[in-house]
Amino acid sequence: MKGLLFTYALTYGGAVVSLFNPFVGLLIYICFAIIKPESMWHWSVPAGNYSRIIAIALLVGWAANGFGNWNIGRARAVLWALLGYMAWFALSSLQAYDSVVSWHATEATAKIVLPFVVGITIIDSVQKLKALAWVIMLSQGYVAYDLNMSYLSGYNRLTDVGFGGMDNNCNAIAMACGAGFAFFLGLAETGWRRWLAFIAAAVMTHAILFAFSRGGMVALIIAGVVSFFLIPKRPIYYFYLLLAVVVGLRMAGPEVRDRFFSTFADQAERDTSAQSRIDMWTICADVTVEHPVFGIGPNNFPVLASRLGLTEGKQAHSLWLQVGAELGFPGLGFLLAFYLLTMVRLWHLARAVDPLDPDIANSCRMVIAALTGFMVAAQFVSLAGLEIPYYVALVGAGYLKCYGAVGVVDPAWAIENEESLHPSDSASHHGTWPVGHVVSRTH
Question: How far is residue 78's CA from residue 114's CA, in Å, rounded to a whole number?
Fold first, then answer.
């Protein structure tokens, strides 16, 4: 009953508020995209158009408020990469073997891209970025909490039926993305908020482990290594990272370790699942070379799987290789550029602002860590429609919009001129630097 009240209150109450404040609609839309009310509370929440209602109100509110602020600074290249991916998606659909399947996939992708566009134009402050980050973290954390409770009660729902129409491997991608995000969000917070974020990171990590997803486990380890290099060089932060590693190792039981080490077995010892993925990846590479421009069409790999020597309806079990096969090299290039540009530019921004505002630097790092986990795990699962990495990237793009101009500032100069960069609240980490404020390195 609580789930039903929660869903109805956010849907209808949120829709009204979104007409005047579209940012509220954006937060609710992203929350629903992650927790999927019909799946989370399937016994009480009937199938409905909850996300669609919020989306319509969001778009109407966005239009009524002048379509936001398009002065997005260093986030412009990130946005253009995503729009290029969306455009290539549509163009590839025109060339697809099964255009009906492709256009359904195009529509689903547009439902992710459009909220991103709305978000990057209406986010204009750190307060909004923090609110977005917390909605993402709490939503994914709640999903992980619910799956943990099911597992601890004796029923591993994640491996048996999955969640939200996704299997254990797909959910492991979402958790790998969310765990790094939650950990660095904790570093950017203080007091009880820090520990709440750390707890969310822990339950997401545990969900990856009992999902028995080798891709998720590899991604988790690589994200941990990346976090070691990203983390500020301060003893307390190293302590938090060491604590995370100890907790993670403690949660990994014998079955988890056996499943993980099977990833690195010799070919003769690989299980059927692992070997079949190698075969499918090879087929994907061959298809991409044969159809290098537009590919075979969005979501058409399963349609043509039987003609490629695979079981009918088979996915490629690699997001990147399947995108290459279905959209060609340009489509794959746009998608990779979207994520990599976000990460690289945030890395430079984090280095520039760290002496001035460590919390902002940690917020940049949380996006980098999250997307690293996602990009690694995505090599093992085909799921172009997973929404959380797009919205994590939106957080990163928001920081590039609000603070990106400071990324070209020499850190020493920035410290000397803190008041000019932080005019609204130079002593606080919650102020905002002016959007579009560009300062030359020659100052």
Answer: 14
Distance from C-alpha of 132 to C-alpha of 137, rounded to nearest angstrom = 9
Residue 378, amino acid = A
Residue 105, class by beta-carbon neighbours within 10 Å (0-12 exposed, 13-18 middle, 19+ buried)?
buried
- Measured between alpha carbons, how far is 202 from 126 in angstroms, rounded to an integer? 26
Is 130 found in the same domain as 54?
no
For residue 250, is pLDDT > 50?
A: yes
Predicted confidence band at 415 (pLDDT cuts at 50, 70, 90)?
Answer: very low
Q: Do residues 145 and 207 touch, judged by C-beta distance below 8 A?
A: no
Distance CA 298, CA 292 (A): 14
Rg (CA), the chain: 22
Total domain count, the chain: 2
Residue appearing with tokens 């600074």: 73
Encoded tokens for 74: 């260093």
Q: Domain residues for 6?
A: 1-67
What helix, strand, coil percent values describe the chain, rounded to 5? 75, 0, 25
Beta-carbon count within 10 A of 275 CB: 14
User: Cα separation of 182 and 150, whole Å?
Assistant: 22
pLDDT higher at 123 or 210: 123
